[in-house]
Amino acid sequence: MHHAKRFRYAVTMAAAGLILSGSALDAVAAEPSAPLAAKTAAATAAHSGGGQVSAAAKTSTYLWFKKNSKNPSKSRLSLVYVQQGGDGRTHSFTVDSWRAGSGNGSTNTCARNKGWLPNGTYGIKAFYSAHNGGSHGVNGISWLLSNHKCHSGTNRTELFIHSEMRPNGTQGPRTGGDSPYRWDGDSDYKSNGCIKLKPSDIRELKGYRSNYPKPTKLYVS
């Protein structure tokens, strides 16, 4: 069996909620720089009844948006898998990662409809396979995020992870200008603050919902 197949086999077993052996855990790459809040939450969830560690492995995933200050439209969105084993140790690895953007190029986290997202923890409130936001909204595959305040107290609202497509997921016609129904190139990584992926990447992220626990948190840093 090739190395890549062994890796995918280990990932599939983990997603099924089985406790991996030490050798199997070595086959998956640890994520040393995963947000501390996620690791702490996983460790806390593993303890029950007077600090006793649960015998069964607890598994979860989260999304992590890593901002690129040199070019906000070349930031990264990652899906991270976390397993809390019966031994009390937390193991995590990046399942996949994609180029993503947030904001129109501004790094002012308090600029509504312009700046990229403030650092912190966001709840994932809903998933839509065919969101219909109209000609000025979010369409197709998308995740709705919780509101979040920047350092000055300005509340950032109507936040999504999304792409540019029709509500049914297909691409609209060329219009000669920017259209929310069609991905025209790298300029479409820019947004009013939402996190944006190209259509093929957001479909890939959606596809992981079939084999992994569904993420409920987004960490931005």
Low-confidence stretches: 1-33, 46-55
Number of helices: 4
The SSE order reads HHHEEEEEEEEEEEHE
Compute the number of strand runs. Answer: 12
Distance between the termini: 37 Å
Count of structural domains: 1
Structural class designation: alpha+beta
Strands in their spatial order, largest beta sheet:
3-4-5-11-10-7-6-12
The largest β sheet comes out as: 8 strands, mixed, barrel
Report on this structure:
This is YkuD domain-containing protein. Residues 1-29 form the signal peptide. Keywords: Signal. The protein has 221 residues and is α+β, with helices and mostly antiparallel strands. It has one domain. 17% of the residues lie in helices and 31% in strands. It contains 4 helices and 12 strands. It has helices at residues 3-15, 22-26, 36-45, 199-207, and strands at residues 47-48, 52-53, 58-66, 75-84, 90-102, 120-132, 139-145, 148-149, 155-156, 160-162, 195-196, 217-220. The strands form 3 sheets. The protein has an 8-stranded mixed barrel with strand order 3-4-5-11-10-7-6-12. A two-stranded antiparallel sheet has the order 1-2. Strands 8-9 form a two-stranded antiparallel sheet. A hairpin with an 8-residue loop joins strand 3 (58-66) and strand 4 (75-84). The chain is globular and about 60 Å long.
Summary of the model, kept short:
The chain is built from 4 helices and 12 strands. It is α+β, with helices and mostly antiparallel strands and 221 residues long.
